[in-house]
Each structure stands twice: as C-alpha cells, then as structure tokens.
Amino acid sequence: MAGMKTIIFLSFLLASGILLVILSCALYGNWLPLLVVLTYVLAAIPNMICKRIASGGGGRDIWSDSSDFRGVLETGYFITSFFVVSGFGLPAMLAHAGKITMQAMIMSFSGGLMVYGTILGYVHFFVEREDELYI
C-alpha cells in the first residue's frame, strides 16, 4: 500500500524532471527542448480515450455493442508509445541538427526519464488493474 512517502517521492521526481527540462532550455539559451513537455502531456491522452471506448462508455458509444476491445486498447498503447519515443527522439534530432547542444540533450533525456519514471511509479502504486483486460 502506497503512503504519504510514496506521494512525496513521486512529486519530487516529477518536479525534478520538469526542472531538468526547463534548465536544459534556460542554461543553453534555446527553448526548443521545451517541446518535450508537450509529449509528456500528449502521451496520456490516447490511453484515456481508448480505455473509455473499451469500457463501453455507458452504452452511448458507437463501439459499445462489440465484445472484443483488445484491438482498441492496443491501438491506444501504440499511439502512447509513439509519444514516449518522440519524447526521446526530439532532443536527439535537435542535437543532431545542431539546434541544441549535447548537454541540453542529455539534460532533456534525464528529465524525460524522471517524468516517465514518475508516471510508471504512479501506475504501479495507485492504479488498480482489471484482470480481465490483461489476460
């Protein structure tokens, strides 16, 4: 069971990760690495939408009469993985093109690892999974 120490640790990890991304912009005078924060926000949206569709949505969705929703869930996971990979690929591409420095790329990678680690920690400690969706 997760307690107050877990919440404090996860919030510290999230704040440190976002701070590293902001510092990667501010220290090197280029605000392009801040685009990575957009991928943090967009990464959760496909899973939310696809889980809503897979749950039936209270019988109002057009897909609610189907009994197999595994494809919808897998599509959400695929689109989410696209945003997660983009969160690491964008700083690498910017550094390769010479738009940001290698130090800014490393700081952006480190911040991304901290933010995604926070998300994984939150899911591990606080989200209860339904067994029938993972069989």
Whole-number mean pLDDT: 86
Spell out the helices and strands N to C: HHHHH
Structural class: mainly alpha
- Low-pLDDT stretches: none
Count up the helices: 5
User: What level of helicity do the residues show?
Assistant: 55-70%
Q: Assign an overall shape.
A: flat
Beta-strand content: under 5%
Main sheet makeup: none
State the distance separating the first and last CA atoms: 24 Å
Number of strands: 0
User: Rounded to an integer, what's the Rg over CA atoms?
Assistant: 18 Å
Keywords:
flat; 135 residues; 69% helix; mainly alpha
Structure overview:
This protein has helices at residues 4-26, 35-42, 45-54, 70-96, 102-126. The chain is mainly alpha-helical. It is flat.
Quick overview:
The chain has 135 residues and is mainly α. Helices cover 69% and strands 0% of the residues.
What is this structure's SSE topology?
Layout: H1 4-26, H2 35-42, H3 45-54, H4 70-96, H5 102-126
Helix pairs in contact: 1-5, 2-4, 3-4, 4-5
